[in-house]
Write a structure and sequence with these properties.
Number of helices: 1
Helix content: over 70%
Number of strands: 0
Largest sheet: none
Oligomer: single chain
Shape: rod-shaped
């Protein structure tokens, strides 16, 4: 897999999405 940069972006987006969902749930 010579697309480590792409993988990192996907993982980062996934983590951010999870954190955002948790934040929204807490606010709601």
């Amino acid at each position: 897999m010579h697309t480590s940069s792409s993988s990192s972006s996907s993982d980062r987006i996934g983590m951010e999405s999870k954190t955002e969902k948790k934040r929204k749930e807490r606010i709601n």
